[in-house]
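Collaborator request, handled under Task 6.
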Amino acid sequence: RGTDEARIRVRDDGRVEIRGATITSANASSATLEITVAGRAFTVNTAGARLLDRDDAPLSFADFAVGHEVRVKGVFSPPTSTSSIAANKVVDRSLEIDEVVNPDDVIAPVISGIAALPGVNSAAITWTTNEPSTSKVFFGTTSPLVINASTTQSVTNAALVTSHSIVVTGLSANTTYVFVVQSADAAGNTSTSGQFSFTTQSAAATAVPVISGITATPGTTTATIAFNTDIPAIGTVFFGTLNPFNFINAIGNPSQFMSHAFSLVGLAANTTHFYVVLASNAVGSAVSNLFTFTTAAAPDTTAPIVSGITATATASTTATIAWTTNEPATSKVFFSTVSPLDVNASTTQSVTNVALVTSHSMGLAGLTASTTYVAAVQSADAAGNTATSAPFSFTTPSTP
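Structure tokens returned to the collaborator:
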């Protein structure tokens, strides 16, 4: 509050100028000021006063806030009491209040309620602040947005308001933009929001879309179909396993895009599928040629089935081990004179054939005559699934 009498002076035109009057209350139509003269406090009701900013532009009482200091200029008649001076007692009916400032204001405005309403080539950005402040929107298509970058544009309104609305123009249709808003109060305290985004609307279609770049990326039971259109369009994929093709299944998106991608699920593995893509807009529809893709075979996780094991001692020091599997697989025999058989023991020997066969026969040599051996066979398919038999035994004959 102004307590220095040097802040009260009589101007050359006879008007009294009081600097440092403090706003103690404010509403939409008036504000109450308090001044101190020679240690005595007076209040001034400003109803009907003329409000100006520092550049003599009109203000409204909405621009005032409790605690701000203002300058009051006018010709006053004596107060009717020891505590107040009424604005309607101003002799020349031209009470002026200007220079709305708060020398102690170091708090930036609080920004809230940010919203964007996009059109085809423009967008309205709105927000509110808790005190009168300026309005500025930075925007661009590069994320994250750098407000000082050469590619970032901005729109500014210097008016001090609490409800902000900025319209940005010259935008591209069907394009995503990122933006931040910024507000500064009368004391220059500035707040900048976080980043937000909006997508402009698609321009009205004038032609049927043109389809290009169709691709299919199959998995085992899934596939991704992608394609492009030259203008925004609704995309649909029709697919099935019958030939000639019929529209058994369909997947689509009701929104309009220029880049389309659809995931097909629940497909049969290792199967040829047929498909076409459809692109449509308000003007009409375009249909692609017929395409195919083949899903991958399901991964093999089943080990071969070993059966029909025979062990034949062909001589006192040799033997042949034979067996079959239900799918092509490698051949391996573990053998030892130590029971129970431990395939990892140092006393266990083995012979291997990596050829993938279903009828297996492995010869063992260097055996000891008249000796009982324990053995086990092992086969692995192309996927690496391995089956190992239960141990069995055979005895070599004596030396003739």
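The cover message to the collaborator said: "The first strand starts at residue 8 and ends at 10. The CA atoms of residues 287 and 376 lie 62 Å apart. Please let us know whether this matches your experimental observations."
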